[in-house]
């Protein structure tokens, strides 16, 4: 089985978010970048398939040279090889179009992406990829098993979960649950050393339409200070929630 | 050139509240574009209710094969409806199902797509919307540059606006093919009778400050008095005190309720990112320095084990008298 894991390179979850150039661009100054958490669950599941079922795992990112440390980290975690499509990820459709080319050329059986990336939160790359390629697609996937060309997956639904069956080639929008938190891998020294010798291929992008454009960024308005209520005066809280906030 | 909305139903065939919110929003957008609102429903038995929120026409699909949500089939139906009605703007809500199919709908229609839209378009020409990004730490004004556009509206970002209309009901039988069902639903596990985080108006959430799973009874009592869903912080689900489905935050479920009550939760940046679209936030925490107090509307500094049971009793009295 050939697996492709799509890796998005995003600000660490503790990052303060600021903008520059007249609020038209995200300010990467001082920001630490990581593998998108949803993708990390997918990558770890892919490595499980590698260890248990002999799968070959390629990781791919659409981004500039600055994303290579993130791909190297994925190699250190255990991916066999990496591909970087050398283009700024202009929007979800652009990225999906680039990934579709990589998938067509590499004949992957299973493609695991994150259900959304924690920077633009578009939530569209895996679905668009599935639609472009006409592959089967399971989003918000919390469990995945593959047997030959058949796959069984759990999908999170509002208020529960759903078990679905389908066939490869398959695209997954992954998230927490694909593996347990405690099974996420931290690269060890040996992994980091071998990652340096693994192939990281740089491909040039294909022409693709850009359908959306980020025009300007804004930060949420500052909040007014919290109203503190004494633990001995819970009636006051109820009064405020009822009469002021009008939520009960 | 009408606007098409997908008015989502529950498995019982009733509209979800988000369907009415979406209709309210669509009506307002339609007014400024001088056009009408068409809705599409699947196996819904109360389509007439849409007339309360300004919908002009409803295309009703009934088909037993569509009993379970199947993203590809539903996306296919919406595409066919959009083509038939010559629609240039398709509006979806932000439920798990709608977000699943939205990118499929967009590609099918050669459309651009924006998710997490939080308000009316900022401009109609060029077409620009405001959406959340960076896990609610910022907003971005996004311009959609294709002729056909798909938006998904963030829950509770517009609200319900009643607007009576004359509704034309029409049966619609789209063509479905086997490929639409290539991901087959084998079983659905859903807690019945429990308020879900996605649908709840109020969410009561507990953190590591509650010390252990045996102490969740008092949170469940509080939730039941308020008709609320229960949720938890990430470590609580990682420790196995509560199921993963209750984990809220940046890497868990988003919460956009009217009222979010956090008990024994410190308010780490990743937790806040996921719940900050909730309208009113209350924190109960013994540590006055807990970061949650910086983002809350109302706060009580004190011991949850003392406060929560007393608050529950007082709310019970309040509910009984109101
Ligand atoms: C990549 C990444 C992603 C993450 N994603 C998420 C996420 O999605 N959601 C999330 O929640 N976290 C997330 N986290 C974890 C986050 O950083 C915090 O560790 C977590 O939110 C803390 O949970 P807590 O508030 O329950 O526990 P703690 O931080 O331990 O806080 C417990 C609080 O309880 C209070 N307390 C103790 N006893 C009492 C009492 N008797 N009465 C009242 N209060 C009391 C304490 O004062 C304290 O403030 C993520 C972390 C990382 C690194």
What can you tell me about this protein's structure?
- The complex is a heterodimer of chains A (248) and B (322).
- Chain A has one domain (2-223): 3-Layer(aba) Sandwich (Rossmann fold).
- Chain A contains 6 helices and 15 strands.
- In chain A, the strands form 3 sheets. Chain A has a 9-stranded mixed β-sheet with strand order 11-10-9-12-8-1-6-7-13, sandwiched between helices. A two-stranded antiparallel ribbon of chain A has the order 2-5. A two-stranded antiparallel ribbon of chain A has the order 3-4.
- The longest helix of chain A is centred in the first third of the chain and has 17 residues, at 37-53.
- Chain A is an alpha/beta fold.
- In chain B, helix 2 packs across helix 3 (96-108) and helix 4 (217-226) runs parallel beside helix 8 (304-321).
- Chain B has helices at residues 17-33, 71-84, 96-108, 217-226, 234-238, 269-275, 292-295, 304-321; strands spanning 3-6, 37-42, 57-61, 89-92, 112-117, 128-133, 138-144, 149-153, 168-171, 184-190, 202-206, 229-232, 259-263, 280-285, 298-301.
- Chain B folds into 2 domains: 3-181, 3-Layer(aba) Sandwich (Rossmann fold), CATH 3.40.50; 202-321, TPP-binding domain (Rossmann fold, 3-Layer(aba) Sandwich), CATH 3.40.50.1220.
- The longest helix of chain B has 18 residues, at 304-321.
- Chain B is of the alpha/beta class.
- At the A-B interface, helix 3, helix 4, strand 9, strand 10 and strand 11 of A face helix 2, helix 3, strand 5, strand 6 and strand 7 of B.
- Bound molecules: flavin-adenine dinucleotide.
Summarize the structure.
Chain A is α/β, with parallel strands linked by helices. Helices cover 28% and strands 31% of the residues of chain A.
């Amino acid at each position: 089985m050939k697996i492709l894991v799509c890796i998005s390179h995003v600000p660490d979850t503790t990052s303060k978010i600021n903008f520059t150039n007249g609020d038209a661009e995200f300010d990467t100054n001082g920001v630490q970048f990581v593998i998108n958490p949803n993708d990390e669950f997918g990558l770890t599941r892919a490595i499980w398939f590698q260890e248990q079922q002999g799968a070959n795992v390629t990781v791919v990112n659409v981004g500039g040279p600055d994303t290579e440390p993130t791909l190297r980290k994925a190699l250190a975690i255990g991916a066999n090889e990496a591909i970087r499509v050398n283009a700024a990820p202009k929007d979800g459709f652009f990225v999906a179009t680039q990934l579709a080319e990589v998938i067509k050329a590499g004949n992957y059986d299973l493609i695991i992406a994150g259900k959304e990336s924690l920077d633009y939160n578009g939530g569209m790359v895996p679905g668009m990829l599935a639609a472009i390629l006409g592959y089967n697609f399971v989003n918000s996937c919390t469990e995945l098993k593959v047997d030959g060309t058949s796959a069984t997956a759990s999908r999170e639904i509002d208020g529960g979960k759903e078990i679905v069956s389908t066939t490869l080639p398959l695209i997954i929008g992954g998230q927490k649950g694909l593996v347990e938190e405690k099974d996420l891998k931290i690269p060890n020294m040996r992994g980091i050393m071998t990652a340096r010798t693994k192939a990281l291929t740089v491909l040039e992008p294909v022409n693709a339409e850009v359908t959306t454009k980020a025009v300007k960024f804004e930060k949420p308005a500052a909040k007014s200070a919290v109203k503190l209520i004494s633990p001995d005066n819970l009636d006051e809280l109820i009064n405020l929630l009822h009469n002021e906030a009008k939520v009960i | 050139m009408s606007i098409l909305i997908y008015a989502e139903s529950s498995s019982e065939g009733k509209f979800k509240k988000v369907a009415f919110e979406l209709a309210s929003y669509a009506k307002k957008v339609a007014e400024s574009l001088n056009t009408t609102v068409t809705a599409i429903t699947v196996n819904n038995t109360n389509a007439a209710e849409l007339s309360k929120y300004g919908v002009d026409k409803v295309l009703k699909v009934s088909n037993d094969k569509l009993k379970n949500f199947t993203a590809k089939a539903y996306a296919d139906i919406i595409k066919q409806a959009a083509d038939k009605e010559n629609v240039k703007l398709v509006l979806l809500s932000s439920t798990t199902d709608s977000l699943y199919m939205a990118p499929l709908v967009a590609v099918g229609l050669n459309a651009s797509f924006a998710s997490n839209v939080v308000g009316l378009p900022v401009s109609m020409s060029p077409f620009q919307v405001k959406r959340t990004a960076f896990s609610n730490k910022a907003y971005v004004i996004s311009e959609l540059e294709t002729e056909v556009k798909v938006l998904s509206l963030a829950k509770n970002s517009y609200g319900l606006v009643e607007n009576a209309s004359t509704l034309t009901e029409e049966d619609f039988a789209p063509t479905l093919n086997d490929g639409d069902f290539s991901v087959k639903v084998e079983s659905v596990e859903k807690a019945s009778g429990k308020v879900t985080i996605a649908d709840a108006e109020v969410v009561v959430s507990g953190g590591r400050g509650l010390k252990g799973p045996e102490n969740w009874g008092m949170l469940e009592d509080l939730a039941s008095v308020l008709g609320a869903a229960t949720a938890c912080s990430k470590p609580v689900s990682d420790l196995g005190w509560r199921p993963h489905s209750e984990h809220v935050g940046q890497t868990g479920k988003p919460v956009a309720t009217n009222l979010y009550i956090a008990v024994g939760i410190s308010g780490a940046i990743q937790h806040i990112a996921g719940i900050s679209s909730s309208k009113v936030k209350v924190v109960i925490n013994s540590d006055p320095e807990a970061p949650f107090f910086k983002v809350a509307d109302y706060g009580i500094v004190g011991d949850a084990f003392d406060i929560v049971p007393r608050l529950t009793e007082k709310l019970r009295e309040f509910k009984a008298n109101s």
